[in-house]
Structure prediction request, 983 residues.
Amino acid sequence: MTTTQTAGWRPSMGEAATRDKPATVSGDYALMLEECLSFELGGHGKCGVDMDEPELAPLAGLPLRQAAPDLPGLTEPETVRHYTRLSRQNYAIDLGPFPLGSCTMKHNPRLNEKVARLPGFADVHPLQPQASVPGALEVIAQLADWLVTLTGMSAVAMSPKAGAHGELCGLLCIRAAIDARGETRDVVLVPESAHGTNPATAAFAGFKVESIPATAAGRVDLDALKAKLGPNVAGVMITNPNTCGLFEPDMKAIADAVHAAGGYVYCDGANFNAVVGKVRPGDLGVDAMHINLHKTFSTPHGGGGPGAGPVVLSEALAPFAPLPFVTRDAQGRIHLVEEETAGEDHPNSFGRMVAFHGQMGMFTRALTYILSHGADGLRQVAEDAVLNANYVLRSLENVLHAPFGDSGPCMHEALFSDRGFAEGFSTLDVAKGLIDEGFHPMTVYFPLVVHGAMLVEPTETESKAGLDRFIASLRSLAERAKAGDVSLHSAPHYAPRRRLDETLAARKPVLVWKGEPAPSGQPSPSEIGDR
Amino acid sequence: MRYLPLTADDRTAMLATIGAASVDDLFTDVPPEARLPGPVEGLPAHASELAVERHMSRLAAQNLTAGNAPFFLGAGAYRHHIPASVDHLIQRGEFLTAYTPYQPEIAQGTLQVLFEFQTQVARLFGTDIANASMYDGSTACWEAILMAGRITRRGKAVLSGGLHPHYAQVVRTMAKFTRDEIDARQPRLEPAPDDAELIEAIDAQTSCVVVQYPDILGRIPDLAGIAEAARAKGALLIAVVTEPVALGLIEAPGNLGADIVVGEGQSLGVGLQFGGPYLGLFGCREKFVRQMPGRLCGETVDAEGKRGFVLTLSTREQHIRREKATSNICTNSGLCALAFSIHMTLLGGEGLAKLARINHARTQALVARLTQVPGVSLLNQTYFNEVTLLLPSDARDAVRVLAERGVLGGVSLGRLYPGAAELANGLLVTATETVTDEDIETFATELAGVLA
Prediction:
């Protein structure tokens, strides 16, 4: 094996060498630091917050808590150390490529963070009088203008809290539109390659889900879709570019057929990064599409949220958008439409989805990102994202099976399968091997339509040199999986943890800490499997 | 472009590897008529960091910030002092720029934080378990109602009049589509919540009764009594906590018999942020675990026997169950959960209790001073850090004029309940540890002026 980096890791630091080195008393190994739970750090009776105590008046008539919550406190130095040590057990974009397909893990610009923390945005209450927050409303309105223009749509609902919440918003608009027509259509068509949220959302919104097959070329089967259309179909949910990383060339024909049958077209916008500034979904007949601000527009994923999922809407669905939202009048003045004025301004709204205005902290970050790139930069984003993905596809297709490699270029992500691996070797082995190589693995086993799928989305913020290192590592792993290198079965070898026992976790769930302090890194028998 | 590392030479070399003449050749699947010939029209071009920061700073400066005014708003979003280390730690790139922990071997930092967070929420709420967070309090509330329906196989939710009206709106909106029956009511301006009326509404079809604690008017309902009545009818009690700091002082809902406790965690670590992102908290009895929505982090061991953490019980979730999932939620509110957890770790249980005492004392001082203003009286029999004041006229006008005078003087019930004339004179005011004696005096003086 050859290394692709001349600094840092050396082959001589492999497993055999580690075995010859002495164990430490602490369980830590230089910069590889273990960290126990905060509850095990001896924090009872401590507090990391000094408070100015006013004169306390007697407590009368309250159902007082019998005892303070049983939670230890830590002083600031202990707290900072605890979380800093924990942070070092995470992989992150800031450390290297994070090529999770359909997740768009691009660089998170730090200007976004700085702007979101300006007190004028961060320290403003959602129920302040409108006249006291014109700048906050202007941020929402400006971002809304950009999203509507970039997508060629009529309106945008800003309040959904994440992609799945945006899907829900779009489907509820469709439901409301059909109800307003006095019809009862209760079926939503979803391609079998769709992300699991699509059918889950349709069910959550009260629809029945019917599946549409894919063609051999990885696209929606237009004829099969047409055969399913009818008076009971409310609409379709199409991901475009789809989860195989391919553009749906029949999108307009799909939309026309669905519209002719009285249905609506929901587009899952998770993959908008591939076409932002290049294609406007409104030109393809889309009625509703959520935009993951945490994907295309670079707001941080934060270890699992918060996201933000504004939904752009066609003229047909715009009247049903949820409250609250921001509008501009003919004079350009901004108004916040809430329940108070909705009766006049927006009588057909399907209602409210969240307590306040949506993910304002994400709006400021996304607008900052958009203004930084401008219309020209966003187009470059899509081009570079697609270029990077095709570079990965063509650099690896002679060693990894690319199921749709012959059907033309991919969009922003490259899809491979496990075909050709030696007996007993799986996509999981390759993924865990990538961890040892210092990379976050790609999305694995999704989409479901490809066996042992590996979906690689490099994004536009990876350099060519960085991609070349990733490609070299993945090439080596593919060769090892084909050759039957058994050391892959036990990967990762160099991560803070080896493979974790997920079956044990699910069979006897331990979801909260109940035990006595345990030594760092050691399992405590009283906590594991004992309940 | 400062965020795009590819050079023109890189692009040329990469196109050669791909075997494409130009980048447009990579977009051939897009029908020609849908391909834009150049940048989207009507939008500006890229801008320098300096220019963007200047633009955004100007917008920020147009807002009257809570820190620049005597500030007394609550109603589901509370301003507390956030220790400096919280924001420092959540900006560690390893937390900020990580994804949902799908590869647990290299995500133990996030996973252990979530396990600690779940433990903290469960202990705060007095529930057996808690999940790894939801979007916000209002969506957590609706998910709890759906969960109660799955558990009891009944389709009617009884909502207390004290439930935040936005939460009630979210529930009504969603129920229209799921065809769940919602028995909701508006609060009345009485010193104590009408627990007896609520108990009467629970019947054999009721899946759950939803009670906010403290309620939207700041009053503290008798959860134990409601829990007992619900149990007698086979219904679940869902307690909703929009101000978790209160639980440093008043008894935890789980200890009073609540089956599911949901809440808004924004108070600790997250900040106001004009309404989001916030943090949905969700705890319940252990026996309901397989009906829970959202991500769960569980303890396990790795191949060498070391303790570690993973996302678990994912067979409830959309990526496995698709249309049969307990919820369509994927992402939780991870970074907000981290902020909450760090703030909670700094405080500890005893620190939270002290903070809660201070909040209550500040509010007592606020009440004592404002009720000296002619025409102003206190509604509440009980309260924590928020009360309802009764003004002699529509509180919307008072709030607007106060803001013009630089005082952010609470939330009018007219804003929350448009069209309910009988509530229009009600004003919700909150005092946390951030409120000073001078703030209170300014508020009282200006309010007297406004009402005179």
Q: What stands out?
A: The mean pLDDT of chain B is 96. The first strand of chain B starts at residue 129 and ends at 130. Chain B touches chain A through 215 residues (CB under 8 Å). The CA atoms of residues 233 and 388 of chain B lie 32 Å apart.
